[in-house]
Amino acid sequence: MNAVCKAHFQSLSYSRKLVVNRMKREPTRFGRILSFNNQVLLLPSSHTSFSKLIVPSSATTHSLHVLADEDRYDISSTEIRRVIKSHFGGYQEGFTCVTVNCPSCNTLSSTNKEASNDLGKLHINLRTGYSFCTRCFLSGPWSSLASYMKALGASKLKSEKTKICPPGITQHLSQYTPTASTAEANEMRQLWNSAQPIHSLSEETLVPFLDKLRLGDLSMDTLEKVGAKINLNLEQLILPCLTTKDAPFHSIKIITPNRNQLDTIEPDSGPELDEYYRVEEKNIPKQHPWLLGYHLAKNKDEVIVTATAADTLTALDCLAVPAVCLPSGISNLPLATMAFLESFRKITLWLGHGVQGADCARAFARKLGEKRCRLIRSSEETPSALQCRMKGKNVAQVLKTALPMTHKSVTTFSSLRKDVYAEITQSSTVAGVRWRRFPVLSDLLKGHRRGELTVFTGPTGAGKTTFLSEYSLDLCMQDVRTLWGSFEIRNVRLAKMMLQQFSGLMLESETREMFNVVADEFEKLPMYFLAFHGQQDVTSVLEAMSHAVYVHDISHIVIDNLQFMMGTSSSEHSSMDRYYRQDQIIGSFRRFATDNNVHVTLVIHPRKEAMDELSASSIFGGAKASQEADNVLILQDKRTNDPTCRRKYLEVAKNRYAGDLGVMPLEFHKESLSFAPRNKRTASTKVAAAAAANNNNKVNQFTSSSLQSGRGRAQ
Questions:
Q1: What 3-state class would DSSP assign to 403?
Q2: Which of 74, 187, 559, 609 is 20 to 30 A removed from 429 (C-alpha atoms)?
């Protein structure tokens, strides 16, 4: 893979200090309550210079969403195989990795093949070069493994003359550690140590609690096999994620009855979603690669992969085939988790969650290798494992309905039949994720869907980037994993804009403490950035996009804008007609969106012509842009008789999914850089006022309504 991919990503964590440095240093008023994202921050009642508050501190440095070296690659799979073979003497070919004996688990001089079967295996991903040992959890990027092999080769040359010890691999690779805080680690130990083993509870005590979790039919034997415990108050079922039966665990899953969320379920959400909202599942730590149930599936040829712990327990109880639960559900599939799944020759993906789960299952199958994956499409006849049992269905018979991931270019109506039925009966789910800040846009487009291409245009200076920033931020806050590629403005300015839209505050006049509250919450979003600026070659952009989809399970990509990929002076395209070149680029993005099942939002400038109102034919170039696009959005900027006043609105000029066309009026709020309708009094403001009345001097948490109703703007 081209080395240019190595520098194509940046994270918010990297840009965070730069965003602070760009803020104005000015005195800030205190003695008032600022509210943000379910938190209330009471500031001191003295005048302090903002510049004095901005002091770099390790306590405020975070690493969430830092694109580490293991997420980058600049070497082909052929080269990986060649290098591994030359230094390790051979390897075992896998589905997504090549495997060698882990130098940290056993000595390099071991040649006993029978003994090596029980030793740790180091899995090197053929796409990224990322290495991970499933026994000692040694991990690292390709660059670290390459430096170890280089040092190993040098020591062999020196050992021919002088006797020296070979270098240790732990000097180059390190043990995988999840992004767990000290508080999470302490919470995990405290919960586990205070919980009671299953066998210590009577059946009269256990069964009513399991009924609350919809697991009343679960056998005691299954719970004991997974090593489950229950807390003293019988409020939580605690499940350790074990790699072997006697090995210490590094993470736990907690299942808790959660009937409070039943009131928030939409009427047309469907029966399946209703069941998932009846219990709450939590990971400690939140991000980790370990699979629940892996110790029972290890050394087997076949495994069932589910998205929830309840489905895994049900499958283990009803089926002879072992089952495991993904650490992050349908959100993403980490590279380290793929190493644990490498040994299975047959993987059945039974993720549930309706159409969204089916889309994620197809994406995961492409990462794991489609030839060994089978899919159980979630429908009323074949819902999740837990629902099948609750509805009295034979879980073993449902497992037999799993279909292979056949060639993507050949299909039949038989394989499409259930998807067609889902389109009819689950219209709200199929329509995609609805915008919370722009309800009119949701009514027109029905939602944001994978696999589509949206062309966005508007006059220069109308606010295209500003609107798209909030447009994508709205989706990202609903766990739509987003990749932003801005060629016009640098990532620091883009991140600052998003931060202001996210908080609803004018951050230039806030304190360092308030910035930390905002930035801490923003870092939790699955938002990634391409480190491009200025003219770029489309091949490099597509390579970076492909890598991000593979590694981070990106589902929405924003490219701003197409014209920056048309002015490169490569010899291949220097003599090509400009319109023809644009059509080629648009076709490439269209294929990318379809092949990778991601939504691509592509900004294209209009033609430089004097016109009062733009239309789909105003897009620069030929007609291919509007023909290939599933959606065409136009940001209209109409001038009025008053030169200081403009009327802006978003026009839906093409809507292939629903066919509804129309306009959405826009009003720009400069203090928050937002186009979303302003609420006169948000829920967060009300809570802040209540907190002030109670003279509470701590940072308080309150309901998530502020997140959905204007981001808690300070008034």
A1: strand
A2: 559
User: pLDDT for 26-82, tens place per residue?
Assistant: 334 333 334 444 343 333 333 333 333 333 333 333 333 334 444 445 678 889 999
Cβ atoms 302, 319 nearer than 8 A: no
pLDDT at 268 over 70: no
Tell me the CB-side half-sphere exposure of residue 149, using CA atoms within 13 A: 18
Please report, to the nearest 10 degrees, the dihedral formed by the alpha carbons of residues 388, 392, 396, 399 taken in order: -30
Query: Is the predicted pLDDT of residue 139 greater than 50, yes or no?
Result: yes
C-alpha separations of 234 from 214, 216, 225, 253 in Å: 15, 14, 20, 15
Average pLDDT over residues 490-503: 92
The residue ranges of DSSP E strands in 330-466, in sequence order, are 346-349, 373-375, 403-404, 453-457
Q: Running DSSP on this structure, what letter comes out for residue 45?
A: S
Q: How many helices (H) and strands (E) does the chain have?
A: 26, 30
Instruction: Return d(Cα 165, Cα 162) in angstroms, integer.
Output: 10
Q: Which residue has the tokens 């870092």?
A: 523
The answer to whether 702 and 684 have CB atoms below 8 angstroms apart is yes
C-alpha angle 499-9-58 in degrees, rounded to nearest 5: 60
Write out the two tokens for 207: 């069964």
For the chain, the C-alpha Rg in angstroms (whole number) is 27
- Per residue in 620-678, pLDDT tens? 877 888 889 999 999 998 876 666 677 889 999 999 998 899 999 998 888 889 998 87
Q: Which of 675, 674, 696 lies closest to 687, judged by CA?
A: 696
Candidates 449, 456, 454, 709; CA nearest to 563 is 456
